[in-house]
Amino acid sequence: MLRIATRQGLKSVNGIRMGMRSSMYKNTTASARFSIQQQQPGVFISQRLGATAFVRSYTTTDATGETAAAAAATTTATSVSDAVNQVVSPENLTEAAAKIGDFKAMGLCNFTPVGGLEAMLEALHVYTGMPWWGTIATATVLVRLALLPLMIKIQRNNAKMMNLNPEVSRLMNNLKTAQQDGDSVAVGKYTNEMQSLFKKHGCHPMKSLGLPIIQMPVMISFFLALRAMAELPVPGMTTGGLGWFTDLTAQDPYYILPAVSAAGVMAVLEAGTEVGAANPQSRGMKNFFRVMAVAMVPFTYWMPSSVFVYWITSNAVSIAQILTLKNPAVRKALDIPKLVKPAAELQKNQKGFWENFKEQTKHHEKLEKERALRERQRAAVMARRAAKRRF
Question: Which keywords appear in this protein's UniProt record, sorted alphabetically (predicted)?
Fold first, then answer.
């Protein structure tokens, strides 16, 4: 107990000593500060004012910096937002994500000629990155180039037919005369001679119909494919045009494309036919197609601009092919026979379409009358024979 009391007493004495030392230190510090203020009041005030100004300046600068930073951040955020919106806009995003199979997902590219053309257009657009007007024009040129060997073959056939035209005309006149006379033996003879003549020279009139028969389905397939793509519409076609017809899914507001297309058709007619420039056309047929070319403008103005891109490109390729195949050097290189007579002279000597049609109609009516007369004569003979048998 005594030891515990002694320890507690020592702790109390030590605590009193520490308190006295702390009090003396505080008094000394306060006296020193007061003496400094008394000796150098200006320095002290200057230091206080400088500190206050520093605090105010720091606070103002910090607030201004925060405001500027916030404004800069807002501007940057706006710029970034605009850039992101531009990049990820539906049109740009679709263009960037264009890939093979998109047409199939939209219901296109089925197992038909139209679907085949749609798949071709999709592949060209995806792999080349061309705008849609360039894709359509390129596809048109490729298809026409694929048909070029057939066109050359038909050119060769037409040239041979033109060189045989005098002899064929003679046989045709003899055949008509034999038909009018009802001489079946002569009809068979002249028909065989004509077939032998065609076989000998490796040509036939029906071969000239090969190119139009193939080109017609191709033209219809292109029209149906482009119209279906415009009706969806396929992404990118609304901005994939050129010049004033930016939207390929809409009609030309200025009707320039329909007019250019009609002019192209007339230019093809003037240069020559699709089956060959050497084959002269009758005046009646040319006039008929001229009227049709002009009449197509008010009937086709409503079509999408993409369809006219195809038509105009196709007409341009046709004119280029016809003019190229008219060149003597090209014809010689392609083994196309040289014409015995100029095309103009042959065209002048030939009858027009309506003249031939009227002549064929009259001939058909005459044959029908003769057949009816023979039937009546045969019926009269049978009636006389039946009357004789009765008696």
Answer: Membrane, Mitochondrion, Mitochondrion inner membrane, Transit peptide, Transmembrane, Transmembrane helix
